[in-house]
């Protein structure tokens, strides 16, 4: 958890989607949203459950994953502080198609479905945000399919780190990425040992620096374009 934890209220007021809500709309959001603590290894959401809330990450880290028919865990993406997810399933009114697990102790913000649907009906800026969110999410997953099928591990690790700096989907991340090599392995589909090799290569190339407590990104554009 962060040394200086942000409050739920501050988190809500700092989100991209809340900045253009009216005071009346924001008052209802602040009154209806609530916080949940999920310990490392716990479930934020479970596959097959009814979807009753829109979910944001106040602090911590989660992964969205599923299991193949053979029982292999497949990670779709990680979700960092400041990010919200699950709007597509709410819009389709379906049961959740994936698990969401905490990779570290995590504080979760939840907006009840009635509040989410009320914003859809009353706020044009909120609708515009969701349109952009869904479009950016689609682009993210198309890029991930390409990465998983065609790229080597070194390049996958680089793209995984670069993807965490998407200004719309992950607005809260700073230059020092507080991820362990094990967590990067979960997100990039590689072993911890192989992630370590990739990070050393990327550090040698001058794109990042391995600091105490995390990874400092030095050249984000080169990281995005890197290919071994």
Task: Tell me what the structure shows.
This protein is of the alpha+beta class. Helices cover 43% and strands 22% of the residues. It has nine helices and eleven strands. It has helices spanning 8-14, 23-32, 87-92, 113-122, 124-150, 153-163, 181-188, 192-204, 220-225; strands at 34-38, 43-45, 53-59, 62-67, 73-79, 84-85, 99-102, 106-112, 176-177, 208-211, 214-217. The strands form three sheets. The protein has a four-stranded antiparallel beta sheet. It has a four-stranded antiparallel beta sheet with strand order 2-7-4-5. A three-stranded antiparallel beta sheet has the order 9-11-10. Strand 4 and strand 5 (73-79) form a beta hairpin. Helix 6 (153-163) packs across helix 7 (181-188) and helix 6 (153-163) crosses helix 8. The model has no long low-confidence stretch (mean pLDDT 85).
Any key phrases for this structure?
Arc Repressor Mutant, subunit A; 43% helix; alpha+beta; 4-stranded antiparallel beta sheet; Jelly Rolls; 9 helices
